[in-house]
């Protein structure tokens, strides 16, 4: 119960394509994150799954059944809003019981389910309170419990933790993940916060301008970004452009524009123009010298973060960052020479050219 | 200390003039009227003595009780009509129409406020008859058309008063409907509610303060109205409001007119007291 299939879903508003041929399959019980900057179409996609947005073309299937023509109230979904949208005139108990009440379930059944939900989100004793008498975190839990009340086949969360402050957000991330695991409910959530996406999701779809840029497990996308956008949006990336010279000994040799030589395990045909991405923490401060995968320059400035020092250096006209662990050893300062090195396994060839 | 004193001075200067004005123009004359209502004759026209006779008149003479009942029914009917027309219009204004169009539509709603009430009422006399502009045009285009002649009848009073008080209901309902977070509707839909259930369980209870405010702003003055019944009502014109008016303008029995006015005020307070628990319960939950 609870698989969602999107096939070439397209939605245009005037000249803008909010959704452009989106194809996705979300498995039963999966915790799926839609990640992207504002305006990328992630919220429109969530609203299309919920039924508030009717696609111009394409199909939306739930458990294999097309639902494009099923109205919102019959889609059997649970939806949690960023602003929670709790009914201000109803108390917590009535808010939680709303879904069952409009389905005309017997009073005893509703009361029992509400008790169960209050326990699930640890709000026993708060049943008689009005929403405005609750803290932000408590309102968030009521909103989650209300969305779960009818045992929907899919739970949709719109920026679920966006309105909470940092500490509470981290606490709620753990709680949300725990509840989702416990119930095994298919969950699709929208976020612009990469950390939230990495922490919560089983899989992530990175969206950009109405299209799905890359889909995969958080770790897989982080380690092997497919595009410049994906590499930059999920974490930071140093980008290098150059020409493939040869492939030998399991390594692809790339001559960068300034003449320096780097190697990667990724494959590419000789003569091809490529863009390479290397994560800042995969670059180490190395002894000065020549050789492949050694890039030399001058530190333009340094950012001290406590556990690490981020060294910025100009290379090929782009700023690159080196994440140096603060292990007590000497580190180059601004204005000093820096040589950074990386392992060929950590250089990823992207599918599109760097802008 | 000084800041508190300065604050109090500011409050006095800001609110003082308005309250002084109200005191001078409303409360003092009202107090005078209350005093008159217990006198045998107006102090302006004789030597008055204390009496309860005028209040006794209201409760013993059938004409007053019957017409008080008619006035209440009129208030009820006009209020219901205003809500029936005004609430859906307010909904459209609050939720369907956007930006500049909304401003233009709101302006159209407020327009009756800016026209003179007497002119507005008299203009209805030319509409509600077969011999007016609309009636003639209708019969010219469609000779067999049914008569639209409702001048000098109870329905004509309803038309005139509904027109006059519709803006209040539209505006109060508009304000409360506009204050409802649109995601509440979506939340209710996602929880399985049909459109009817969304309305009955979310929209209606949350807009009740606006409905109640609009109803009170309509019911009370309509109950005391005399201009519209007199101009449009014909033989149906007699209401408590016109009886009161008569005492002041025709019979020159100010004490009786004043007494009737205060009986009506008392009736309004009584109604409010009866409905207060209901009003308070709903307004409490919503004002968050």
Number of domains of chain A: 2
Biggest β-sheet description of chain B: none
* Spatial shape of chain A: elongated
- What are the low-pLDDT stretches of chain A, counting only 5+ consecutive residues below 50? none
| SSE series of chain A | EEEHEEEHHHEHEHEEHHEEEEEEEEEE
CATH class of the largest domain in chain A: Alpha Beta
Q: Which range best describes the helical content of chain B: under 10%, 10-25%, 25-40%, 40-55%, 55-70% or over 70%?
A: over 70%
For the record, give the distance between the C-alpha atoms at the N and C termini of chain A, rounded to a whole number.
Answer: 43 Å
Beginning-to-end CA distance, first to last residue of chain B: 33 Å
Q: Which fold name fills CATH's third level, the topology of the largest domain in chain A?
A: Rossmann fold
Radius of gyration of chain A, CA atoms, in whole angstroms? 25 Å
What does this structure look like?
The complex is a heterodimer of chains A (355) and B (288). With 355 residues, chain A is of the alpha+beta class. Chain A folds into two domains: 4-231, 3-Layer(aba) Sandwich (Rossmann fold), CATH 3.40.50.300; 236-240 and 274-350, Beta Barrel (OB fold (Dihydrolipoamide Acetyltransferase, E2P)), CATH 2.40.50.140. Helices cover 24% and strands 36% of the residues of chain A. Chain A has eight helices and 20 strands. In chain A, strands 6-7-8-3-9-10 form a six-stranded mixed β-sheet, sandwiched between helices. Chain A has a five-stranded antiparallel β-sheet with strand order 13-12-11-14-20, with no helix packed on it. In chain A, strands 15-19-16-17-18 form a five-stranded antiparallel β-sheet, with no helix packed on it. Chain B has one domain (61-286): MetI-like (MetI-like fold). Chain B has helices at 2-36, 53-60, 62-96, 99-114, 117-125, 133-141, 154-178, 182-190, 195-223, 227-232, 240-249, 254-286. Chain A binds chain B through residues 50, 52, 71-75, 77-79, 81, 83, 85-90, 98-99, 102-103, 130-132, 146-147, 149-150, 156, and chain B through 181, 183-184, 186-194, 197, 201-202, 205-206, 282, 285-286, 288. Chain B: It is a multi-pass membrane protein. Chain B: Its main location: membrane.
């Amino acid at each position: 119960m609870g698989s969602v299939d999107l096939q070439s879903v397209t939605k245009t508003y005037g000249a803008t394509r909010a959704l452009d041929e989106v194809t996705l399959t979300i498995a039963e019980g999966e915790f799926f994150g839609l990640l992207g900057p504002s305006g990328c179409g992630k919220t429109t996609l969530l609203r299309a799954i919920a039924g508030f947005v009717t696609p111009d073309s394409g199909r939306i299937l739930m458990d294999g059944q097309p639902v494009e023509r099923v109205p919102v109230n019959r889609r059997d979904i649970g939806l949690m809003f960023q602003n929670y949208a709790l009914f201000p005139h109803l108390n917590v108990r009535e808010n939680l019981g709303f879904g069952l009440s409009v389905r005309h379930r017997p009073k005893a059944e509703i009361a029992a389910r509400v008790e169960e939900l209050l326990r699930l989100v640890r709000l026993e004793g708060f049943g008689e309170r009005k929403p405005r008498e609750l803290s932000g975190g408590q309102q968030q839990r009521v909103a989650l419990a209300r969305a779960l009340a009818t045992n929907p086949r899919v739970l949709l969360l719109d920026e679920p933790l966006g309105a909470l402050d940092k500490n509470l957000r981290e606490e709620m991330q753990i709680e949300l993940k725990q509840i989702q695991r416990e119930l095994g409910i298919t969950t699709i959530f929208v976020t612009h916060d990469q950390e939230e996406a990495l922490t919560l999701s089983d899989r992530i779809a990175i969206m950009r301008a109405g299209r799905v840029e890359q889909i995969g497990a958080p770790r897989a996308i982080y380690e092997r970004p497919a595009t410049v956008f994906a590499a930059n949006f999920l974490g930071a990336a140093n980008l290098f452009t150059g020409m493939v010279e040869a492939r030998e000994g399991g390594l692809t040799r790339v001559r960068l524009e300034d003449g320096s030589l780097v190697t990667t395990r990724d494959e590419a045909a000789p003569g091809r123009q490529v863009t390479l991405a290397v994560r800042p923490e995969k670059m180490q401060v190395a002894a000065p010298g020549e050789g492949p995968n050694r890039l030399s320059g001058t530190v333009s400035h340094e950012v001290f973060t406590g556990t690490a020092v981020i060294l910025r250096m100009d290379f090929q006209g782009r700023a690159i960052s080196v994440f140096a662990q603060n292990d007590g050893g000497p580190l180059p300062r601004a204005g000093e020479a820096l040589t950074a090195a990386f392992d060929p396994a950590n250089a990823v060839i992207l599918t599109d050219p760097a802008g | 200390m000084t800041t508190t004193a300065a604050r109090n001075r500011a409050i006095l200067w800001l609110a003082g003039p308005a309250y002084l004005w109200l005191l001078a123009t409303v409360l003092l004359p009202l107090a005078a009227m209350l005093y008159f209502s217990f006198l045998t004759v107006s102090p302006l026209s004789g030597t008055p003595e204390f009496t309860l006779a005028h209040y006794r008149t209201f409760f013993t003479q059938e004409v007053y009780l019957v017409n008080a009942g008619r006035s209440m029914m009129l208030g009820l009917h006009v209020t219901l009509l205003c809500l029936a027309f005004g609430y859906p219009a307010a909904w459209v204004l609050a939720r369907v129409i956007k930006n500049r169009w909304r401003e233009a539509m709101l302006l159209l709603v407020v327009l009756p406020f800016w026209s003179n009430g007497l002119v507005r009422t008299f203009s209805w006399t030319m509409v509600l008859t077969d011999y007016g502009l609309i009636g003639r045009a209708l019969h010219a285009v469609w000779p067999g058309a049914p008569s639209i002649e409702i001048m000098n009848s109870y329905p004509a009073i309803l038309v005139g008063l509904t027109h006059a008080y519709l803006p209040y209901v539209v505006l109060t309902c508009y304000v409360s409907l506009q204050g409802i977070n649109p995601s509440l509707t979506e939340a209710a839909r996602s929880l399985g509610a049909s459109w009817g259930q969304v309305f009955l369980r979310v929209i209606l209870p949350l807009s009740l303060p606006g409905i109640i405010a609009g109803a009170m702003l309509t019911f009370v003055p309509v109950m005391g109205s005399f201009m519209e019944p007199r101009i449009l009502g014909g033989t149906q014109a007699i209401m408590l409001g016109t009886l009161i008016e008569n005492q002041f303008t025709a019979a020159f029995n100010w004490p009786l007119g004043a007494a009737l006015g205060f009986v009506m005020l008392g009736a309004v307070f009584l109604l409010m007291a009866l409905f207060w628990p209901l009003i308070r319960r709903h307004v409490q939950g919503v004002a968050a």
